[in-house]
Amino acid sequence: MASASKTRKTATRLLTAVAVLSGLVLSAAQANAATASLPGEAPAAAATALPVVNMEATVLAAQIDPRRADSTQTPGAHDSVLAVEQALQARGLLDARWVDGYFGTTTVSAYAAYQRSLGFTGLDANGLPGTTSLTSLGQGRFTLTRQIGVGAKLKRDGYTVNTRTQNMLLEAERLSGVHIKLDQGSYNPGGDPTSAGTHDGGGVVDINVDGMTSATRTAVAKALRQVGFAAWVRSPSQGNWPWHIHAAAINDTDLATQAQNQTGDYYLGLNGLANHGADDGPRVAIQTWEEYQRTH
Ligand SMILES: [Zn+2]
Hints:
Layout (H helix, E strand, L loop, with lengths): L1 H23 L1 H6 L20 E3 H10 L13 H13 L14 H13 L13 H7 L5 E3 L7 E4 L2 E4 H14 L5 E3 L19 E5 L5 H13 L2 E6 L9 E6 L7 H11 L21 H7 L1
Parallel strand pairs: 1-2
Antiparallel strand pairs: 3-4, 5-6, 6-8, 7-8
Bound molecules: zinc ion.
The site of zinc ion has 6 residues, from loops.
């Protein structure tokens, strides 16, 4: 939280500096006004007029849109996704026909290619926009609002999670009144083979439900959903695993691809398993951790 706020403050200072500078260079810009900018290129002196990209909406679209059977766009994401796609197109990474405000698999691939072009590998090139890559892509093209930060990694019950996930778990504990003990953490590549790679990145945990009644398991899953996890109670009949709760934090920018698919499926009413079954969890209004925090 502190670093995000610091980033915002820095961004505000930068904007102020740019505003002052653009005032100073206004006459120079006016002198150059006769020089038409190239199509798709932002005019040099228009820093305050750059489009604003909502990072939360963009990252959400990048999880849901690739899972859709149709071309429905994620509500509230169109303008932001379009600005990102235009920037990818300008860099020769995305064909014009995919520049439409829909963050489908082709846009995810193009975004991953952009991340690799910055020298990123692994999770940092997962096709989900993170703050560093998105800020870089937006240079001279767009500014960012509603930035997401996952924070530093830490240990919980001996397992690695990031700070955002830890804060979400603490709030779910408070809401449910149940102590949450992990069985598996995040950033665990090559871990439990039954997890199909979902725990390779950030935002994903398994919760131990030993000794919990069915009602308590459901109550914990509900609390996890309320704070922004795609969470399901998993039974031994569904896979080669004991009873547990699998939870993936929506909009965690470190999500592994398989976990991105699960958070997208969750929005589309599915169970996040390979069988594409219907969501069998407790119904809550789906929201992200950041949305939850704004309303509580
Ligand atoms: Zn799991």
